[in-house]
Structures are given as C-alpha cells and as structure tokens.
Write the structure tokens for this entry.
Amino acid sequence: MVRDGRVMKRGKIEVDMAWGQQDRARGARAIAGAGGRPYSLQPVSSDPSPVFAQRHLLGIEHLAREEIVALLDLAEEAVTISRQVEKKRTTLRGRTQINLFFEPSTRTQSSFELAGKRLGADVMNMSVGTSSVKKGETLIDTAMTLNAMRPDILVVRHHQAGAVHLLARKVDCSVVNAGDGAHEHPTQALLDALTIRRNLGRLEGLTVAICGDILHSRVARSNILLLSKLGAYVRVVGPSTLMPADVERMGVEVAHDMRSGLKDADIVMMLRLQRERMSGAFVPSAREYFHYFGLDEEKLGYAKPSALVMHPGPMNRGIEIDTAVADSAQSLIREQVEMGVAVRMAVLEALARNIPNA
Ligand code: NCD
C-alpha cells in the first residue's frame, strides 16, 4: 500500500520505490534505525487486549493480583524495547500527556517523560514553580484549565494524600498517580516488584523488609499492598516514632530494630527520611539514626547472605544507607531506575488501550 509517498508494508514503513535513487538512500537513512533496520512502528505488545479495566491508575489498592501480573508482564516487553537502539513505539501517537508535578521530582518525572515519548506521545511537563498555583490558583482550577486543553493522560504528583483521586473525578482524561502525600505511589511499587521478580524469579514466599520512615512513606504503603497481594511476607522496620499506629492491620510484621527486622530477609528495601513531611523531631539526629537504622555491611549481615538491597531514591548516603552498600553487587538501586521507565511504559500502554478512539 502506498501512502504519503511511503510504502506501508506489514506495519513497517519502507522507502517508496518511486523515489529517485539518491532520495531513496537519503530517505532510508532518515527513517532507518541502527544497522539500517527500518523503524518498527508498533505498539509495545502485539496483543492489544485490555490489561486492566480502569480508566485511571490511582493506587495499588484497587488492583487485582491478575492486573498487577499483567502489568508486570507488559513491562517485561517494555524492558526489551528500552534496551534496543530503536525505542520508539506508536501506542500513544497523537496523544497528549501532561506531567503535572506539585512536588519536586527528578527521577519520577523524567521517567514518565521518557516512557511517554517512547510510546510516541506529545509530553508536556508542568511543575508548580512555573504555574499559577504560586499565584493562588487551586488544584482543581489548575486541573480544569489543563483539562480544557484536551490531554489524554495526566500524570499527577501532589503533596496531599487524596488530591490525585479528587482531580481524577473532575477531568475527562486518564489520570496516573505519581505520588500523593504519604498515601500511594503505585508505579514505584510496580517497578520494585518488577525488579524483584527479574532477580529472584518470583515474589511469592519472599520475605521483604521495608526499613526506615514508614510513617511518611507512600512507597512503603504501595509496596505493602502490592507485595501482600502477590504473596510475599512483608516486615516493616523502624523506630516507633516513624511507624504508623495501626500498621499491623495491613497484615505486616513490625520490628523496631534491624537485627530482628532483617532476619531471613530476601530483600532489604530502604526508605528515605521524609524530612519535608516531618513537623517536629522524629529522630534525635542523622548520626544516631544511621547508627541504629542506617543500612551498612554489618546490619545487612542480619539478612540472608543472598539478600538484595533496594532504595526508591533519592538516597541520603550516610543517613539511611551506607555508600558501600548502596554501590555493592547486592544493590538493585540502579536497576530500579531502569525498571521505572519500563513500568511506566506498561502503565501508559494499558491506559491507552482503554481510552476511546473517537
Ligand atoms: C519517592 C517518592 O517521591 O515518594 N521517590 C521517588 O519516587 N523517586 C521516595 C522518596 O521521595 O523518598
């Protein structure tokens, strides 16, 4: 089939045979991927069936086990794509994705941006520093203004728990929660699960120790929900000042020292001290905190010898984690970042399949 001066063949674009010899060579170079291979303009997966039934991804709480597994499987395909020279897919071609961040973020925002771009979306980043929120506009006014610009997907981070849910009820497009206060951070939990599954082959039956500032952590909350749904044993470890009062109700074990908390752990997941969410003194000093709860070689020795170390970032080296451990062969921290892009591609692709085309 010939369209727009190009020959369409089995979903791939090839150079129009009617072009002159020279033009053809130039055209081929322009559209060729590495090694002269043509771009394969396809979605992430050849199977377009729905991954989950929802219009938004607001949290792990409302996802079924099967939906989580389907997202992780789709993310595996996105890992393969992201490791190729040619990373571009067409799932979001023609779609507009707005990343609306009311809290500073480096890795999550750039990860969502790359994920959207790899799927062919037009991605716009909007952070609070440059918006009218500084001038007093409310969250909903900002959301409605952006809504009027007809985006297809809004990726939202906000410092208040529940803000993203509220926003999702007001707009017409799909909404992804990129972290709301101390509530949920679903794509972080998904990328953590993907990283664990790729390294240990499963989640079921593993012991995962989540350590540090549990009280203020949306990462801990989303991970507890996800890991429990997938059959892992979760233990939360930290000082009582940083432990939510009724955390046992989430079905986790609680430990207040690293020796008992890390016992037999397959995964040691460290959390950042969320100082920006603390009003008052939750820990005596960074030095003392590191002494009791910072992960160093000695404390890691309480876990299984094969234990793997994780941290969502940004890390406070020397406060919650020692540099030697963070950079050791047991650390999955950099792999988590790579998996972040893949998981976000999977989430965006899954949502795109549910967006009406008309
Ligand atoms: C986490 C977050 O923002 O909740 N970081 C992230 O997503 N890159 C964890 C944290 O900030 O400590």
